[in-house]
Amino acid sequence: MGRPRRFIQAAALASICSSLIPATGFAQTDASTIEMKILQWMETERLISEESTEWESEKAVIEDMISLMETDKASLQEKIDSANELSSAADEERAAIVEEKDKLTATADAYVSIISDAEAKTRELIPMLPPPFTEEIKPLISRLPEDSSTTKLSLSQRTQNVVGILSQVDKFNSGVTYLSEIKKVSDDQSLEVHTLYFGLAAAYFVDTQGVTAGYGTPSPEGWEWTTDTDLAPDIQKLLAIYQQTSQAEFIELPVSIY
Fold first, then answer.
1. Angle between helix 25-125 and helix 155-173 axes, rounded to 10 deg
2. Which residues 6+ apart lie within 8 Å of 125 measured at CB?
3. What is the 3-state secondary structure (H, E, C) of 49-83?
């Protein structure tokens, strides 16, 4: 194996320097000094070479680290960009939810006004219902709030209640209803009577003896009744037709529409 290039150069340099120095005692001292300098230079060169080699190794490691950091940086940037996109999407979704909530709140507020108005009109309708029928739907009527603005009932409960009452009223108003009831026919007399209600338009009654009769119509204060004994025979015929114990025929009876 050949000697290192730097070592050969140093040896050659030392040989040349020795040949140029005169062979005297003083010259020998200078030659020793020069040789020492050369050896120091060679050591310095060796250290520089080692440092250079170490630097090359460290440089490769540093370059690898820089490359890895660049890769990590790119990956992190992708994650940041993705997070920003998700954040933007989340913000848009949140804004959409808030907007939908505002719409629902506005709709609910509008519906509160509607159901409150419906409850008020339903309460106004109650006096116009016949007392026997009112008694039948009393559980529903009792659930109508006295003050719609302070009630603790939910909107669904209030809606079901109003719909329940109006459904029963509509059913009653759509047909002819027969009721046996006690009716006050004068200031000092009450009788058991047969009454035919033609929805909420009019009603006709006759007592069990077929003597006392009359008719009634609804008003905001309740049903208003008029006693007219002359109507007893016709109302008896009307009752017989309803009960299908007599042939249908035209019967003229008084009526007043509220």
1. 30
2. 169
3. HHHHHHHHHHHHHHHHHHHHHHHHHHHHHHHHHHH
Q: Using CA atoms, how far apart are residues 221 and 104, in angstroms rounded to an integer?
A: 39
Structure tokens at 186: 């004068």
Sequence-distant (6+) residues with CB within 8 A of 213 are 204, 205, 206, 207, 227, 228, 229, 230, 231, 232, 235, 236
Tokens matching residue 141 = 């009527």
pLDDT in tens, 2-58: 444 444 454 445 454 454 445 444 455 567 777 777 777 777 777 777 666 766 776
Cα(98)–Cα(100) distance, rounded to whole angstroms?
5
**Residue 69 and residue 92: Cα distance in Å, rounded?**
34
Name the nearest CA neighbour of 127 among 221, 199, 217. 221
Cβ contact 251:240 at 8 Å: no
How far is it, in rounded angstroms, from Cα 235 to Cα 208?
Answer: 12
Rounded to two decimals, what is the model's pTM?
0.58
